[in-house]
Amino acid sequence: MDRVELAAFLRSRREQLRPEDVGLPAGPRRRAPGLRREEVAALAAMSTDYYTRLEQQRGPQPSEQMLAALARALRLTGTERDYLFRIAGRNAPTPVVAAAHVAPALQRVLDRLSDTPALILSNLGEVLVQNSMADALYGDRSHLTGWARSEIYRWFTDPAERRIYPEHDRGRQGRALVAGLRAALGSMGPQSRAGELVRVLTKASPEFAELWERHEVAKRFVDHKVLVHPQLGEIEVDCQVLFTEDQSQMLLVLTAPPRTEAAEKLQLLGVVGTERFDSVR
């Protein structure tokens, strides 16, 4: 672990960011350039003391999870992320960690979306990051680990995952998830994480195995759908998707036409928050 270079690299990346780059208000005039240490720590979900010690060359060796969180908080590119791992004395990111690194371009767009649900997904249906409005609609899924992070896996192994869709639309959603996984398999190859997920689900779910035999392939989300909130009921939303160039990640934004019942319900999400999930889990 190169403590000197790690400290210098973290400080330089922090000083190049501005609050507006990460969705924070600019606030009063700042004496020093860039983000404050406590702001980076909050974005990476770690203590300010821990982050400060890293910049002061006296912190412990960060884990892979900590490094991934710092890379996301500092909006590092893939090359910068890999460099961060190396100077911290870690091997190049594992495929799981690398796949979970949010594309900076998508993150910048998400940072500017605060009044409507928005989330960034991998092509295996893993939520990489989502805003507070998406938390209120879908629930906070940051605690999930392993294959449970994939909505495709949860759909075919956890019946509770389907409650957010009306019963009449669940068949279409299941087919869409399988078709999207086949598209991911085509681009990633049979020995990739996509191939592993197919093998896991084929053993775990007869329904998945049957749908897989349809050989349907698709990448596009439905433009219009209905989602079910336990307290607010059905919400009709329009879906817009922005893909990275390699199609490995997507930003999903949910909106409703102004002055409609659905728009009012989306506004209420900010009031309802995530409290309702405590009673349904």
From TrEMBL:
<dbReference type="InterPro" id="IPR041413">
    <property type="entry name" value="MLTR_LBD"/>
</dbReference>
<dbReference type="GO" id="GO:0003677">
    <property type="term" value="F:DNA binding"/>
</dbReference>
<dbReference type="InterPro" id="IPR001387">
    <property type="entry name" value="Cro/C1-type_HTH"/>
</dbReference>
<dbReference type="Pfam" id="PF13560">
    <property type="entry name" value="HTH_31"/>
</dbReference>
<feature type="domain" description="HTH cro/C1-type">
    <location>
        <begin position="30"/>
        <end position="81"/>
    </location>
</feature>
<dbReference type="InterPro" id="IPR010982">
    <property type="entry name" value="Lambda_DNA-bd_dom_sf"/>
</dbReference>
<dbReference type="Pfam" id="PF17765">
    <property type="entry name" value="MLTR_LBD"/>
</dbReference>
<protein>
    <submittedName>
        <fullName>Helix-turn-helix protein</fullName>
    </submittedName>
</protein>
